[in-house]
Amino acid sequence: QVQLVESGGGLVQAGGSLRLSCAASGRTFSIYDMGWFRQAPGKERAFVASIPWSGGSTNYADSVKGRFTISRDNAKNTVHLQMSSLKPEDTASYYCAAKLIGRAWNSWGQGIQVTVSS
Q1: Are 108 and 53 in contact (CB under 8 A)?
Q2: How far apart, in whole angstroms, are the C-alpha atoms of residue 76 and residue 22?
Q3: Which of 87, 111, 116, 117 is nearest to 39 (CA)?
Q4: Are the beta carbons of 54 and 47 closer than 8 angstroms?
Q5: 7 to each of 14, 20, 22, 38, 54, how far by Cα in Å?
Q6: String of b and e for 87-106 (b: at least 16 CB within 10 Å)?
Q7: Is 69 exposed, middle or buried (0-12, 13-18, 19+ CB in 10 A)?
Q8: Number of Cβ atoms within 10 Å of the Cβ of 11
Q9: What pLDDT sits at residue 64?
Q10: How does DSSP assign the chain, residue by residue?
Q11: Phi and psi for 88 in degrees, rounded to 5?
Q12: Can you tell me the distance from the alpha carbon of 44 to that of 40, in angstroms, rounded to the nearest whole number?
């Protein structure tokens, strides 16, 4: 497994932008698919976006398509989530996750809070 640490969260007004980063260590980062999930109070953790180890086709939840962009830098062992046009309903704890191809998500960061005010 890899160890994951998120950064970049905070408070932003609706319509604003934030960039989350996730630093990975412990294993060969470049072989892992990477993803972002989020959990709002009283709700289950939900998928936000993912990017394969190759940096190829990305996937997004319908609720964030066109507003969020996931990217990775294998040389720096980091994955980013650029969030734009933020809405109050994007308020949640955001978690970075990693997995090997064909496996379940099994490495998680500690989470970071994103709060969008109206």
Answers
A1: no
A2: 10
A3: 111
A4: no
A5: 20, 6, 6, 14, 23
A6: eeebbbbbbbbbbeeeeebe
A7: middle
A8: 12
A9: 98
A10: --EEEEE--EEEETT--EEEEEEEESS-GGGSEEEEEEE-TTS--EEEEEE-TTS---EE-TTTTTTEEEEEETTTTEEEEEE-S--GGG-EEEEEEEE-TTS---EE---EEEEEE-
A11: -55, -30
A12: 7
CA 35 to each of CA 3, 15, 78, 91, 113: distance values in angstroms, whole numbers, following the listed order:
14, 23, 11, 18, 16
Tell me the pLDDT tens digit for each residue of 26-69.
778 888 999 999 999 999 999 999 999 888 899 999 999 999 99
How many CA within 13 A on the CB side of residue 35?
23
Measured CA to CA, the distance from residue 12 to residue 8 in angstroms comes to 11
Give yes or no for a contact between 86 and 116, defined as CB atoms under 8 angstroms apart.
yes
Judged by average pLDDT, the poorest of 78-82, 93-97, 100-104 is 100-104
CA atoms of 87 and 101, how far apart (whole Å):
32
What is the phi-psi region of residue 110: left when phi exceeds 0, alpha when psi lies from -120 to 50, beta otherwise?
alpha
